[in-house]
């Protein structure tokens, strides 16, 4: 008997997001550790290059490549996840990702060289691409509309927990051996990277007990199973519940339309009536990267070393940002369906721009250039002391606190709500691939940027946040409180802008009617006719 509690279903499936978090901090926590720096040392300091007790680790560009390998694999995995999910199902695609993760983690844990480490991270990334694209789709298609944002937002919360847990595991293991080039121990990095396999094993076996997406079942013509899953998850097994009938009618009309437009490919995402949604979904993920948050996560130890925090003090100070990330994601999970997507993204962009510009100003006015970098790491190119150093750290914490309840969860919630059923798997996969493409580019870009343009790196990300604000303001419509089929009708509004639908600035959060339907307080058939008659007419006219 499959599990029917939607909270349990969401809690289990978002462990896939936790894998992404594990991978982020498993590397960021190692960037200042001598065990990692000495084992993969490329000089100029530390054995066999000289007798210095501090190793400098991989060169800047190579470290960027190691970091970006996971994102590059994720880009490929996200693109592959669409066809995989459409053919095998949302649930099985998540399980396939778990197997790939276990293989990649085994290679990383056993790494003997930088190329072997890169290959392992590429494989792990392929898994993260699948999970990051298909977990939100799975949750979106199985959740009730009034709580859909909350449950998809749990994906981001799982990412933050993954980051925090793995960071502290790595911190604990940093005490294995000593922080010098002569007495370090490989176990300090092999143990954390080996433990990454545990959540994937848990997720694989738990997915066996979860139901398949009802909308995917409907698309395959398995209507009895679709009704059973809807009843199990939304009505405690009551197949005659009004909301089950309401959802079934919505899904049937959508599937009838899609049967007349079958054999879809990625090219369908770029047709005139779909290109707007594709661009919005893609840029939701692109802007989430260009805010600078994942750069903060990957290279947070560089920031704190530039503020004068070194060794274990730097690791502990960095961990506070991860704790803030976990705590500040909670308000979004609880209230994002009430706040709406647009206001959340707009406020987040302005706040993050403020803290990025503040950090740029602090470094420009008070930072001292360190030739060759702190501890010979060229990316740690400036040093700030005293009150300005505290200001730099405070703005970094405030930046994380601004991202966590805004762009963090909404960048995962929003794309699955944009696309019709026939294109949802591929649409979200393409949008997520944009995330990973820019994640890859930024992984390469940031170490040399910090070494060469220094404080201007922060200035650049501040400008990106301002650009994101105006893009959301004029183009991104509100999807909160709407069924996935009602969102489809909004984009095909005959009274709206051609190929765009209802203008973004005229859209609002709608929750009352959906809440009534979910609780059986209205007649399902009447509600369905009210909401879907115009939708059906618009679609047949397309």
From TrEMBL:
Major localization class: membrane
Where does this polypeptide localize?
A: Membrane
Name the source's superkingdom: Eukaryota
- According to Swiss-Prot or TrEMBL, what is its membrane topology? Multi-pass membrane protein
Q: Does the keyword Phosphoprotein apply?
A: no
Q: What molecular functions are annotated in GO for this chain? A: carbohydrate:proton symporter activity
Write one Pfam family the protein is assigned to: Sugar_tr
* Gene Ontology terms: cellular component: membrane
* Residue stretches spanning the membrane: 6-24, 92-114, 151-171, 191-210, 279-301, 313-336, 345-365, 391-415, 427-446, 458-476
The Major facilitator superfamily (MFS) profile domain covers 9-480
The UniProt keyword set, sorted, is: Glycoprotein, Membrane, Sugar transport, Transmembrane, Transmembrane helix, Transport
Q: Does the keyword Transmembrane helix apply?
A: yes
Q: Which Gene3D superfamilies match?
A: MFS general substrate transporter like domains
Family (UniProt) = Belongs to the major facilitator superfamily. Sugar transporter (TC 2.A.1.1) family.
Q: What name does the UniProt record give this protein?
A: Glucose transporter
UniProt organism field: Ophiocordyceps camponoti-floridani
